């Protein structure tokens, strides 16, 4: 199966971001991808954290969700909508939610980011919990590709990457990591964490990132990539908007798991 990690440099205008996302999804489909994953905050990166509350949609309705459904159906793609803000019972907090739509445009899965990023090095400060509500449910779904092969696909978002216990619970063949890693933390840890999750779970990893200088002054790391179960980077994009495409094969995953049956040797 051919998969695509979509990299963006999202800005403050929702319509512009959706237009760019659609163009990149079309590019992924033209390259032969069956699954395309948008980055975290693909639809909007505001000037202030609370700005995302202004565009938070009720679950099941709204222009961002309609966009994802329509794009999936138009292109016949499995589309993973990076993250978008969904309204919660608390108007001061939104869920940072990943939504999955099948090639028929129907919703398949929802995952709310569990681990909320906080960082302060004296120059940069982030605290997602100020406006986001943490999720509490590890989520995976089954994707059946064009050849009839069923894949267990595990969902995660950005900062989740630092918590390996989540990925163990998912028990997936393919792990998705839409992200908006800061340049500082990404330069230090992004690739090594992604490759570690692939190696320890003997699974493919598809990581779609924000990558560049944003209107709000934020600098994101980029380096969207696809990694195989042995930890080999199959394809990668350094920075800027674009599409990273790679082929993944269940036979390769099974080969790695048979040759080194580490998952069978687990004691805890």
From TrEMBL:
It holds the Pfam family CN_hydrolase. Gene3D superfamilies: Carbon-nitrogen hydrolase. Residues 1-250 form the CN hydrolase domain. It comes from the Bacteria. Keywords: Hydrolase. CDD domains: nit. GO terms for molecular function: hydrolase activity, acting on carbon-nitrogen (but not peptide) bonds, in linear amides. PROSITE patterns: CN_HYDROLASE (PS50263). InterPro entries: C-N_Hydrolase, C-N_Hydrolase_sf, Nit1/2_C-N_Hydrolase. This is Nitrilase. It comes from Tepidicella xavieri.
